[in-house]
Amino acid sequence: MNNWYVYMHIREDLNETFYIGIGCKKNYGRAYEFRSDKRNIIWNRIYLKTKILVEIVYDNLPKEDAAKKEQELIKQYG
């Protein structure tokens, strides 16, 4: 099914991408989930310092394609 998406979290203070992820569509829930118990310590430290912007980069993809795009973006942004 083509219901997967790739998203980026961007630090508002630096306008810098710091997280790339994928999720399965349910109102883009994973992309907008800002619960600290669902994220790693680096993500949480950034969240405490600044606002986080969300950008849906790819949408309506099969899971395999979303995973490939996620890896490409991780290589690009580090």
Structure description:
The radius of gyration is 12 Å and the shape is globular. The protein has helices at residues 41-49, 63-77; strands spanning 4-11, 16-24, 52-61. By secondary structure, it is an alpha+beta fold. Strand 1 and strand 2 (16-24) form a beta hairpin. The chain is built from two helices and three strands; from the N terminus they run ββαβα. The model has no long low-confidence stretch (mean pLDDT 93).
Set down the secondary structure blueprint:
Layout: E1 4-11, E2 16-24, H1 41-49, E3 52-61, H2 63-77
Antiparallel strand pairs: 1-2, 1-3
Strand content: 25-35%
Query: What is the helix/strand order?
Result: EEHEH
Q: Give the uncertain stretches in residue-range form.
A: none
The radius of gyration over CA amounts to: 12 Å
Largest sheet: 3 strands, antiparallel
